[in-house]
Amino acid sequence: MASKIPSGDEEDEEELEPLEGSLQNILDQKSLKWIFVGGKGGVGKTTTSCSLAVALTKVRRSVLIISTDPAHNLSDAFKQKIGKTATKINAYENLYAMEIEAKLDLDENGLDLTMGSEGKMAPDFLQAIPGIDEAMSFSELMKQVQQMDYEVIVFDTAPTGHTLRLLTFPKVLQSTFGKINSLKQKFSGLITQFAGMLQQSGTSPDEIFTKLEQAKKTIDIVHAQFQDPDATTFVCVAIPEFLSLFETERLVQELTKHEIDTHNIVVNQIHYLDEDCKDCKKCQTRWKMQKKIPGSNR
To answer: What is the pLDDT of residues 173-220, one digit of tens each?
Structure first.
């Protein structure tokens, strides 16, 4: 049965073509490198991302699924211990998983800007710039992911707000790094005065700005890939409840605003009445509520 657009007048509702109830289009799109799965909390993002990753193992050489949700569930879903390094999933020859934090510790991920015995002065200098710690962490995270030899990477993301921040970070950081470069030129004399003190501990302003520039290059590459519909897509996950659908609508709008492709929405927890539950008041109530959602009573 075709979907309908609600108009308040049943006679004016427009018939739409029925949509295929699968993610086969993602399996068929061999150019995809990054697949993000996200939505409101509790709608089944991990279940969807794991199912998609398993399906991809049948059509791709190697698949990596990464959880960036602080409340990781991949270990529970696959019933084995999964950590910060890629772990092969039992019973699959080409499926690997990781559970990582979207915001990494600078000192744990190769960003060595310390000043010898003085220790933390250079990182403190950088962290005085708003958002720079997240910028460098994001850069290191994406650099690590890019260096991994996997044909496709599925991200099991955090709830909507955190995910949008992660995805739109490259665009925001391009502006931030532009301002940093402007400050470098504007206060070059002041930076020169600090150069002697920094060099005494084995670190120079040039080294710091070189690392920032390297991070910017990584972020520029990631930004271009995120905006390439051939390389990146976002799968929205929802349930047939108004709050979830409203948040999904906002998510699609934000993704479109930032030029990130999204053309699949998975709707979980759809309730169907059968002979066993036709007299159940709880099932009847949920069914009536679900019927108010356009297209859910097909």
So the answer is: 666 666 666 666 665 555 555 555 445 444 555 666 676 677 677 777
In tens, the pLDDT along 12-43 reads: 445 667 677 789 999 999 999 999 999 988 89
pLDDT of residue 118: 43
User: What HEC string does the chain produce?
Assistant: CCCEECCCCHHHCEECCCCCCCCHHHHHCCCCCEEEEEECCCCCHHHHHHHHHHHHCCCCCCEEEEECCCCCCHHHHHCCCCCCCCEECCCCCCEEEEECCCCCCHHHCCCCCCCHHHCCHHHHHHHCCCCHHHHHHHHHHHHHHHHCCCCEEEEECCCHHHHHHHHHHHHHHHHHHHHHHHHHHHCHHHHHHHHHHHHCCCCCHHHHHHHHHHHHHHHHHHHHHHCCCCCEEEEEEECCCHHHHHHHHHHHHHHHHCCCCCCEEEECCCCCCCCCCCCCHHHHHHHHHHHCCCCCCC
φ, ψ (nearest 5 deg) of residue 52: -65, -40
- Name the residues annotated as catalytic: 69
pLDDT at 139: 62
Q: Quote the pLDDT of residue 20.
A: 75
Amino acid at 243: L
**Please, what is the angle between helix 132-147 and helix 160-186, to 10°?**
110
CA–CA dist 105, 178 (Å, integer): 24
Q: How many CA atoms lie within 13 A of 108 on its CB side?
A: 9
Alpha carbon distance 145, 153 (integer Å):
9
